[in-house]
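Reopening this ticket.

The earlier resolution said the output was attached, but the attachment link was broken on my side. Pasting everything inline this time so it's all in one place.
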Amino acid sequence: MTILKASKFSPLDPAAAEPFYRQIYNRVRGAIAAGALKPGDRIPSARALTKELGLARGTIETAYSLLAAEGYIQAKGQAGTIVTPGLKLQAPVAIPIRQPDSSIAATSFRPDTILPFQMGLPALDMFPRKIWARLGARCVRAMQPSAMVHPAIYGLPPLRAEIAAYLQVSRGIDCSPSQVFLTSGYRHTIELIGHALLKAGDRVWVENPGYPPTREILSHMNMATVPIPVDRDGMIVSDGTRLAPRARAAVVTPAHQSPLCVSLTLPRRMALLDWATRNGAWIVEDDYDGEYRYVSRPLPALKSLDRDGRVLYAGTFSKVLFPSLRLAYLVVPISQVERFEQISQVLAAGSPELTQAIVTAFITEGHFARHIQRMRKLYAERRESTKAGLEGVLGKHVRIDTQPGGMHLILRLQGQRSDRRLVARMRKEGLYAEALTDWISGEQTASALLLNFTNIDSQRTAENFGKRILTLM
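Inline output:
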C-alpha cells in the first residue's frame, strides 16, 4: 500500500485563479486518475496537510469533503483517509489526431492574430484609442435603463441616420435611415440577403478570383455559385450573361475588386445594372474598402447609379475602424425595407447598443471623417514604402501588381513556385500571407501572395520581412 506523504504533495500556486481547496482537490484526483494513487492507498490527514501547507484546516477539509462526496476517498477513523477500495476509473479514450499536411497552409479568413502582412487589418497602431476610450466612458456614464434592454433589431436609430448621411456625401448614395440595417459583419449581411431575397437552388454570380467566404456562405444556403472571370476592368459581365443569364443575383466588389484591386469600369457597371433590371436580379455591392483609393478620389458607389432599386450596398466598420467591433451595415432598396424588417425580426439579434452608441459619437463629432482622411494618406505612404522594401529584396523572384487602391499588395511569384506552400512556410515563421490560388475557382494558373501593408511602418521593416521571405523561398 502506497502512502502519499504531505511533504510529497505538489506545491500550490497562490497566484492561480483557482482557490486552494480546488487545487488540492485537483491534485489528489489527478494522482488517482494517473494511477499514482491506487485503491486502498493512504493520503495525508487533514491535520498533517494543514501543517505542511500552512493553510487553514477548513480549506483542507473542504477539499477532502468534495473528494469523499464524489467517491474518490473514504475516512477510516484512526486508520486515516484512503483511496476508496474497489474504485474503478474509466480509462480515457485515445482520440486519433489528424495530422494536417504541413506543406499547405490552413487558411482562415478571420484570424485572431496580429501578424506582419495580415489581411483585413487596418493600421491598428494608428487608431485613436484615447478618443475612443473617452467616448466609451462618456457613453457608459450616460447609459440609461432604456439602453439596457434588447438592442434595436435594425440598428440604433441615430447610427442609421449617421450612416445614411455619410454615404450620401462620401459614396454618392441617396438613402434614408430606414434603408440602413446594422449587421454583425459581412457574413451576417450575406446571410440576411439570402434569406430575404433568394431561395435554395438559385444561381448567383461571384467574382473569380473572389472572396472565398462568399462562396462558402451561399453554398451552405444551398445556392449555386457561378464563378465569373475578372480582368483588369473588373467582372466580365458578358461572361456572366453567357454562363448564367437567369441568375438571381451577383456579388461584386466594384471599387477595389477582392483580391485583384481593379475597379469595375463604367461600361461594365452599366451593363451589370442593365442585366439586373432586365432579369429582375439583385446586385450585392460589397464596398469593403472603397474609401482607400490613392490615384484619385474614391469612385462613387455602384449603388449611386442604381435607378431601378436592384443594388444592395454592403459596408463595414472593420476596415476603417477595427474588426473586433463586429459591426457592418446594409443599405437595401426602399421597396425591400419591409421585407428586411420581417426577416430581421426572425433572424437578427441586434448588435450591442453600447458599441453602436460609441460609433455614433465617433461619427457625429467628426472623428470618423478625420480618421479616414489620415488613414488614406498613411496607407498611400505605407503602400509605397512596403512595395519598395519588398521589391528591393525580392525583385528577382516576384512581380508586384500596380493597383489604384486597396489595403494589400499582390506579389506574383516567378517560376514554378507554389504560393500555398510558401504561405505555409511563412505562417510557421510568424509571417502572414494568403495564397491567391485559394481565391480562385476551377483551374489554378496564378501563383501569388496577398500581403496587407497597412501595419508595415517603414521601408526598412518591409526589407527585413522581405529577407525572411527570401530565405523561405
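Reporter confirms the inline version is readable. The mean pLDDT is 88. Residues 279 and 303 are 18 Å apart (CA to CA).
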